[in-house]
Every structure is written in C-alpha cells, then in structure tokens.
TrEMBL record:
Gene3D superfamilies: P-loop containing nucleotide triphosphate hydrolases. The gene is ugpC. It comes from Anatilimnocola aggregata. InterPro entries: AAA+_ATPase, ABC_transporter-like_ATP-bd, ABC_transporter-like_CS, ABC_transpr_FbpC, ABC_transpr_MalK/UgpC-like, P-loop_NTPase. Keywords: ATP-binding, Cell membrane, Membrane, Nucleotide-binding, Translocase, Transport. This is sn-glycerol-3-phosphate import ATP-binding protein UgpC. Pfam families: ABC_tran (PF00005). CDD domains: ABC_Carb_Solutes_like (cd03259).
C-alpha cells in the first residue's frame, strides 16, 4: 500500500510538426492530486485526454516535463519503475502464450529481482536471481489463484481461456508481486458489457480486501461509477475535478465534465440569468426557454447582480413533462416554461426504451426545440401546447 502525490505534473511531447516552435503536444498539464493509502481512484476522460500518459509517468515509464511524483512522501520522480514497486495491468495481450497460467504467474515472481518491467514487455531480465524458493513461489501462485478465482485454470494456456478469464490472470499476475501501487490501464476494455461490469465489481472487492492503492483508467462511465472511491476527470490534459462519483454527478465542475457525466445527453442553453431577493429568472438567447425559480441559486453565489450570462443545463433523467392544461405540477422543485417560437412546429420523435421515462429537449436552432419522449408521456403533449418541464436538478455554469 502506498499514498501517491502528484505536484504540478506536466508532460509536453515535442512532435515533428511542432519541434522548433514553441511548445508541442501538452498531453498533461499541471496535475496536482493526492491519493490515499488503499484508495481506488478512477482516472476518467475522453480519448486523447492524457490518461495513459499520466499513468506512465506514475509508473516511471515516462519522465514528466515538469512537476514531481511522491510515493509515501518520498520523491520518486526520477526513480526507475522497479524502485517504485508499481504493477501495471494493460488492456490485452500481456500474458505469455507458450506458458501455462501457473507459469505466467510464477514468471512475475521469478523476474522480481530482475525488474518487473521485463515481465510485461518481454525484454530479457539479464540473468536475474529469484528472491523466493520454488516452494514459496508455488505457494504464492496457489494463494493468488484462489483469491482471484482462477485456480481451476492453472494448467491451461492463455489461448484456452476467454477474454475475461485472461484478464483475471493478468490481474493475478500483478497482485502476486504484492506491489505498493496497482495501475490498471483499461484492463476491462476488451470485454463485453455484463462480463465487464461483473469483473469490475469483483476487481473492486479484490482491491478492497487487499487494501491496495490502485489507479484505474477508463473512458467508460458505468465502469468509473462502479469502481471509484473517487474519480479524477481529465480533459485536454487538465484535471478538471477530483471527487466522489456522486459529487461529480451532482455538481460537475464545468459543462464538459457535465457532458461526460450525462450518458443520455445534456440539454444546455446559453442565456441571461437575473436575480432578485425572491429568486431567479433565466431567458435563453434563442428564445427557446424561459425558466424561473423562487429560490436563490446557491451554487453560483449570486448576490444581487442584475444580470449575467450563464449556461443552464438539464439532464433528460431530471426532466418530466406535462402539458400545462392537462397536468398539475406537483414537484414544486423547479418549473420551466418551454415556449416554441411562433409558427414553429414541435417535432416529436421516439427515443426508445432506454430513456427511463424522461424527456430529451434538443434545441437544434434558434427558437425551435425538438422534443423526444417515451410512450408513457405520449398523448400528454399536443404540438401546440405550452410545455412545462420539471427540472429536478438544474446545473449552472459560468
Ligand atoms: P485513449 O483513451 O485514447 O487511450 P488517453 O487519454 O490515454 O487516450 P494519451 O494516450 O495519454 O491519451 O494521449 C494524450 C495526448 O498526447 C494525445 O494528444 C496524444 O496524441 C499525445 N501523445 C501521447 N503519446 C505521445 C508521444 N509519444 N508523442 C507525441 N504525442 C503523444
């Protein structure tokens, strides 16, 4: 177990196009964080946001352009991967096809003194000596195989295992070395939905039981939410938010974070917010939305500013809809009025079964909204209705 601190960690790659000019690819920018002993941190972000680069700097496979990496308070920025006692599990392909599962597991231990990286990259270990006797190694192999649930397959070769089973073996091979820190780079990405989630849950349990500190990279939101004690959201190489999954969902730091945490889409409007002692009013620039609420918006810490430009956003799962004439609005939490511009048509589309009874509003162009709703709501809405939407959770961004 170990704590991990990053201080201003930055990586700039000079590439052919930019060499000679100022800068280069800013893969990771000024990342600061502290991961506690035994914590499972999920590093989450879109493709190309710098996740792998950051993980490689933590492992010691890549040198930061600036900043420091501390493990248990000790500066390891310039230490080799072996000195850090960190184990990495990749997406696929890290097992040796000509060895049995038992031999794959033992291999990691036999190479321990010769450098763990050799076990992952296939490079020679240059005559390393085993630190453990063969009996001790066999004992450890049995022990980890039991814990990770791969004991029945110890004599099989990787080709005789499914993708999920192979990933379990890869995990066991990382765990058998008893690393201080476990780094997982999309280890479940090659697996299908249900197996992937089942393995994610199991992985979490394994890490909990062993009290291991781990950093798990993914761009899959469900996986991130299933696994994380805390989520670090990386966008364009910047750490935008580091908090519990619940907190990031409820209070995303900015619009891009909110979009990443909105699997069914995010309805967003740019407009003016005006505030007085009684509450607030919002008017979208394109005239497609007017909203009001009789409570101050604490999140924005607005005092008595007359008017300011903001982005207001609503997730589909936080909306309900009713035609103003037909249905009473019972949840007084928030009421929005959506008024299609004069002469425009309200277009209805089926969203499909995964919309959880929610409404998706898509402002496609100024003054026009496209409504989508599910079967339960069909009939409540007339094309010419003035529509009211209940927003249970309204998000604001400056
Ligand atoms: P993915 O989810 O697709 O794996 P990622 O979030 O892991 O993406 P990185 O692989 O860390 O992203 O890449 C971050 C940025 O750094 C990208 O723009 C990438 O093109 C660039 N990059 C990564 N490695 C190098 C390199 N060796 N040389 C130049 N640019 C690089």
């Amino acid at each position: 177990m170990a704590s991990l601190q990053l201080l201003g960690v930055t990586k700039v790659f000079a590439n052919r196009e930019t060499t000679g000019s100022v800068g280069g690819v800013q893969a990771v920018q000024q990342v600061d964080w502290e991961v506690g002993d035994g914590e499972l941190l999920v590093l989450f972000g879109p493709s190309g946001s710098g996740k792998t680069t950051l993980l490689r700097m933590i492992a010691g496979l890549e040198q930061p352009s600036a900043g420091r990496v501390l493990m248990d308070g000790v500066d390891v920025t310039h230490s080799s991967p072996r000195e850090r006692n960190v184990a990495l599990v990749f997406q696929t392909g890290s097992l040796y096809g000509h060895l049995t599962v038992a031999q794959n597991l033992a291999f990691g231990l036999e190479r321990q003194n010769g450098g763990w990286l050799s076990g992952w990259t296939g490079k020679s270990s240059c005559g390393s000596e085993s630190a453990l006797s063969s009996e001790q190694i066999a004992e450890r192999v049995r022990d980890v195989a039991e814990r990770v649930g791969i004991a029945p397959w110890l004599q099989r070769r990787p080709a005789e295992l499914s993708g999920g089973q192979q990933q379990r073996v890869a995990l066991a091979r990382a765990l058998i070395r008893r690393p201080k820190l476990l780094l997982l780079d999309e280890p479940l990405a090659s697996l299908d939905g249900p197996i992937r989630l089942a393995l994610a849950r199991e992985l979490k349990q394994q890490l909990r039981e062993q009290g291991l500190t781990a950093i798990h990279v993914t761009h899959d939101l469900t996986e991130a939410l299933t696994l994380a004690d805390r989520v670090a959201v990386l966008i364009d190489g910047q750490l935008r938010q580091l908090a519990s999954p619940r907190e990031v969902y409820d209070r995303p730091a900015d619009r891009q974070v909110a979009e990443l945490f909105s699997p069914r889409g995010l309805n967003a409007w740019v407009g003016h917010l005006s505030v007085n002692e009684r509450g607030w009013q919002f008017a979208a620039d394109d005239g497609s939305l007017q909203a009001a609420r009789l409570e101050l918006v604490a999140e924005l810490a607005i005092t008595k500013e007359a008017s300011r430009r903001v982005v207001m956003a609503l997730r589909p799962e936080d909306c309900d809809i009713a035609s103003a004439s037909a249905t009473q609005i019972e949840r007084a939490d928030c009421t929005l009025e959506v008024v299609p511009a004069a002469g425009s048509q309200v277009v209805a589309e089926w969203l499909g079964s995964d919309c959880f009874g929610s409404l998706l509003l898509e402002p496609r162009s100024a003054g026009r909204l496209v409504f989508r709703w599910n079967e339960a709501l069909l009939g409540a809405i007339q094309p010419e209705s003035r529509l009211r939407v209940l927003g249970r959770r309204v998000l604001w961004f400056e």
